[in-house]
Amino acid sequence: MPKFTHLHVHTEFSLLDGLSKIGKLVAKTKEFGQTHVAITDHGSMYGVIEFYKKSTKEEVKPIIGCEVYLAKGSRFDRTKSDALTELRRFTPRISSGIRLHRSEDVVA
After folding, report:
1. Which of 12, 46, 51, 79 has its Cβ near the most Cβ atoms within 10 Å?
2. Is residue 51 a contact partner of residue 22, using CB atoms and an 8 Å limit?
3. Angle at which helices 22-31 and 48-57 pack, to 10 degrees?
4. What pLDDT, on a 0 to 100 scale, did the predictor assign at position 4?
5. What is the DSSP code string of 54-103?
6. CATH architecture for residues 1-67
7. Are 63 and 38 in contact (CB under 8 A)?
8. How far is CA 74 from each of CA 66, 81, 92, 101, rounded to the nearest angstrom?
């Protein structure tokens, strides 16, 4: 069987979109014989410490990520020009001009 790694996984820390409990996620990963698993919650990294500890304990390599949205200008801009903008008003965003430290480690 070819090796497979889930790279787009939302956990209970991904509000309105995630369901997976970290402990069960890691246990199922190990049960299925997978050696790596990722966490990519929406706009938060609250679960990464628990994820890292439980993954390494079970000898599953953790891949830590975060699904973020780029704002057109500043993340503080809150215009009401259309329905889509209004919908995104409460979505965590980062400013497109932000400079990332250690950007060589960022995969986009």
Report:
1. 51
2. yes
3. 30
4. 86
5. HHHHTT-EEEEEEE-EEESS-TT----SSHHHHHHTTS-EEETTPPPTTG
6. 3-Layer(aba) Sandwich (3.40)
7. yes
8. 19, 15, 12, 18
pLDDT single digits (tens) 81-103: 544 555 555 566 676 666 555 56
Which residue type does 63 have? Answer: I
Buried/exposed code over 18-37 (b: 16+ C-beta within 10 A; e: otherwise): bebebeebbeebeeeeeeeb
Token look-up 């049960």 returns 31
Contact 26, 6 (CB under 8 A): no
pLDDT tens for 16-60 read: 788 899 999 999 999 999 999 999 998 888 999 999 999 999 999
Phi, psi dihedrals of residue 50, rounded to the nearest 5°: -60, -45
Q: Where in the chain is the domain with CATH 3.40.50?
A: 1-67
CA-only gyration radius of the chain, Å: 16
